[in-house]
């Protein structure tokens, strides 16, 4: 399906919700081999989101770039894990829904804060982007990015590897002072530089914000660019309870917070950590009122 056509045809485009925290319920969260070792578990999550009314499914390929795979000893082929991830999402999507290949951080830092050069990041991102395109993704989403330098490197790799549309979504630690990433980048800086670099959609996801706080970052992004804006909040702010991270916002309250993001300028919405098919269904039902 043509993602650009979807943007033209719908006032609000609905993405799916969290994959990792859903797989956690089956014991597979954090296992990069799940696409290959337990494909049915991934497929069932995709099917549940499709049934909840989303327009777009995001492949389970988030950190499956070569640098992350090798530094975290995941032990999978970049080509195989990304190809199967797209195929599983496509199986659930059929001809009705868009499928986005998912990309994120390498988990490492660029010089001078770390030991990696931009050329190494670029090569890893380009390799993954090329696999996702060959596998049949309708577009790419770069999400849960916290370093603008790394984000721009990944965006360039995507744009130079295929003509697919690219959504770029950055995580913010605070909505105050113009919104700030973990590396200190403001929402305005991110929006302007990502626009200049050719991002087709600019957005925010994850981070340390609840949906209403995220709506303030959405407003700042919207004011700084003419590109469509995406918002994928967590199911509330993360809490550390009994040695685990918990997200406890109920679907109805979550959907109302996402509605605030739409009012602030978001056209593409969905859910990040802790969200479930019930959260996406609640947004789907709320969208009609918007």
Question: Could you characterize the architecture of this molecule?
Answer:
This protein has 290 residues and is α/β, with parallel strands linked by helices. It contains 12 helices and 10 strands. It has a single domain, classed as Homocysteine-binding-like domain (TIM Barrel, Alpha-Beta Barrel). Helix content is 45%, strand content 14%. Strand 8 and strand 9 form a beta hairpin. Helix 11 packs across helix 12. The longest helix has 18 residues. 55% of the residues are buried. The model has no long low-confidence stretch (mean pLDDT 95).
Write the layout of secondary structure elements.
Layout: H1 3-9, E1 13-14, H2 20-24, H3 34-37, H4 39-51, E2 56-58, H5 66-71, H6 78-93, E3 98-103, H7 118-135, E4 139-145, H8 148-159, E5 166-170, H9 187-196, E6 201-205, H10 211-224, E7 229-232, E8 239-241, E9 244-246, H11 251-264, E10 266-269, H12 277-287
Helix pairs in contact: 4-6, 6-7, 7-8, 9-10, 10-11, 11-12
